[in-house]
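Consider the following input, taken from an annotated entry for S-acyltransferase (Theobroma cacao).
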Amino acid sequence: MHRSGATMAWNVFKFCTALRGLGSIMILLVLGVVGVTYYSVVLNNYGPALYDGGLDSITAVVVLILFHCLLVMLLWSYFSVVLTDPGSVPPNWRPAMDEERGEVDPLNGSEFNGLQSDPSNQRIRYCRKCNQLKPPRCHHCGRCVLKMDHHCVWVVNCVGALNYKYFLLFLFYTFLETSLVTLALLPHFIAFFSDEEIPGTPGILATTFLAFVLNLAFALSVLGFLIMHISLVAANTTTIEAYEKKTTPKWRYDLGRKKNFEQVFGTDKRYWFIPAYSDEDLRRMPALQGLEYPSKPDFDSQEYQTVQPLSASNCSLPPASSSGNNSGERERERVSRKAADGCENGGWLMGTI
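Applying the prediction step yields:
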């Protein structure tokens, strides 16, 4: 069971490069759906309804205003995710001083060249593929990505520390826009199954039908995805971290829902619903830069999850407990199984909380 989990996590990173190959196709697909929807809603149905007069005109004005406002926010958020780098580790990055524990960076100068993973220091992490230290919550996807959540084929980019908020806003505005379009085209869709004569050419009718089905499908699928990410934000975790720590009820970065929300969206309410941050938040909130994250001061450093590199030379088991009790033996067996899994799956050991 542990082995399959480690293999699954490794395969996710392995196929990031393949997913990037779908880039231009996925962008064209998104723009194609937007184009079909715009043609159906604005040009075929509610645009002409502006000249009908009465209640139909008022309804058309309301629908068109909401449609264009949400479309602008959707596209702004979408291209912010596509064009914003999710965050990478700066060259020669070193861990900062641990003010909570009074520890300083033990890796300086020549010590970095001979770095070996020290299981007793869970705060130091090293990427074997990039050959460099990496900050907490950082994962490899072609390169080390800060607070990586996942690689999304729809945005042709990794979702990480610097563009996660934009991704959430993209989901939010996509759900609102597709829901609006579904409701706006619902009367026209129902008319397809009535005995009344439907005005319009076959091409217009086909486009309306297609736009309704596409937007309904996207609204339902995005809703589930949005709910999942809301729960992740509330717990101050990512998709990868949720998978890694799924057997543990504790999490060192869970600071409460309000502070967890601010770790992603900032504290300035004026910027919560736009894909941008205030200069003040960027200055005083290191978490928005992806290198440092506040954690529970009383949380034991041994209880949070990390990924540590292993090699054939250091795939050794921890010594048995000196007390010789049963709990120590069980712990040794558990770590033994995980160590074996890590050695067999590319040399990565998935730690436990």
